[in-house]
Q: What sequence folds into this?
């Protein structure tokens, strides 16, 4: 997710190309691939949380897609 938002003066904001899609009450589903490495899982989880928070702060309804990759 570091390629979808930037940190400027301690504030995280979306890159302009993504800002075009963000509108009040827009439903956005975050989908990331799954990785078996614990460190990657932790990093991706943190990025999902941060991106989701930014989108919610901008008025979007955010959901996160999950699935069981062991099936």
A:
């Amino acid at each position: 997710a570091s390629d979808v938002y930037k940190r400027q003066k301690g504030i995280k904001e979306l890159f302009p190309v993504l800002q075009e899609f963000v509108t009040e009450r827009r439903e956005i589903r975050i989908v990331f691939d799954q990785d078996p490495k614990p460190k990657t899982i932790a990093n991706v989880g943190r990025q999902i949380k941060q991106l989701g928070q930014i989108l919610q702060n901008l008025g979007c309804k955010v959901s996160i897609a999950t699935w069981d990759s062991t099936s």
About this structure: Residues 2 and 68 are 25 Å apart (CA to CA). The mean pLDDT is 83.
